[in-house]
């Protein structure tokens, strides 16, 4: 395990959401003060909703912030499976309505995620390196981003020396095809948060730290900045 892990544990999910949102907002604010702009890559799924709601209310200069996704299900933004829809419904409101959002789904290639990789990767690259903040989630199977166990492009996507910005992913546990930032791109960030909830996920993370070959381990092994793990039961 090469990365330093900073653990932040809370008694309940509401407190976690509040503290994580404030930490992220402070980091974005510092980036805007220092460089005049900030980039934030967020995960989807069910875990971030409350944290997004708190983050949306933080009084920073959101007009200077670009938000994108760590990964996306290859579905349109009208689907309730869409991570872009999650962000639109829960984050891009209140103060955060002024942020710019860069989606990963490309409707011009709605039937073929692989055909979209070059264009989507170029759009992400245009944000510049590194991200200011990346927030990862983790599934009960140890996937993070769309690095799914058994995924058809798992080794390519988690190659720490890989050159691609995005990869496609199909896996039994993934539902529809996915697009994901690759491991080098996820780790090219000034601040890296892992947001997990529940005893089961805490146990999965502990197993990965102990050496079990789960996709989240690739992050713990190769991260160049501390991984701030935010957890509540
Ligand atoms: O499918 C996904 O799952 C993970 C975890 O989601 P959760 O519902 O267990 O919180 C998420 O981090 C990822 O972005 C998402 O696409």
UniProtKB/TrEMBL annotation:
EC number annotated for this UniProt entry: 3.1.1.31
Identify a single GO molecular function assigned to this protein: 6-phosphogluconolactonase activity
Q: Which UniProt keywords are listed?
A: Hydrolase
Q: In which pathway does it act?
A: Carbohydrate degradation; pentose phosphate pathway; D-ribulose 5-phosphate from D-glucose 6-phosphate (oxidative stage): step 2/3
Domain of life assignment: Bacteria
Where do the Glucosamine/galactosamine-6-phosphate isomerase domain residues begin and end? Answer: 12-222
Q: Which Pfam families match?
A: Glucosamine_iso
* Substrates-to-products reaction catalysed: 6-phospho-D-glucono-1,5-lactone + H2O = 6-phospho-D-gluconate + H(+)
The UniProt record lists the keyword Transport: no
The entry's family comment says: Belongs to the glucosamine/galactosamine-6-phosphate isomerase family. 6-phosphogluconolactonase subfamily.
Q: What does this protein do?
A: Hydrolysis of 6-phosphogluconolactone to 6-phosphogluconate.
Can you say what this protein is called?
6-phosphogluconolactonase
């Amino acid at each position: 395990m090469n990365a330093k892990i900073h653990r932040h544990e809370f008694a309940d999910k509401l407190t976690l959401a509040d503290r994580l949102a404030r930490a992220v907002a402070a980091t974005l604010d510092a980036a805007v003060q220092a460089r005049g702009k900030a980039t934030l890559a967020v995960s989807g799924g069910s875990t971030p909703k409350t944290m997004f709601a708190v983050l949306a209310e933080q009084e920073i200069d959101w007009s200077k912030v670009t938000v994108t996704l760590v990964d996306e299900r290859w579905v349109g933004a009208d689907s309730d499976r869409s991570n872009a829809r999650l962000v639109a419904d829960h984050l891009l409101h209140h103060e955060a309505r002024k942020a710019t959002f860069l989606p990963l789904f490309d409707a011009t290639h709605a039937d073929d995620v692989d055909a979209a990789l070059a264009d989507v990767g170029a759009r992400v690259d245009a944000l510049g390196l590194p991200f200011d903040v990346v927030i990862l989630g983790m599934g009960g199977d140890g996937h993070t981003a769309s690095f799914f166990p058994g995924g058809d492009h798992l080794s390519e996507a988690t190659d720490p020396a890989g050159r691609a910005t995005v990869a496609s992913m199909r896996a039994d546990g993934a539902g529809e095809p996915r697009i994901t930032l690759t491991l080098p791109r996820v780790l090219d960030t000034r601040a890296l948060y892992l947001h997990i909830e529940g005893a089961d996920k805490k146990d999965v993370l502990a197993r990965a730290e102990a050496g079990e070959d789960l996709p989240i381990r690739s992050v713990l092994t190769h991260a160049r900045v501390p991984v701030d793990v935010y957890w509540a039961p």
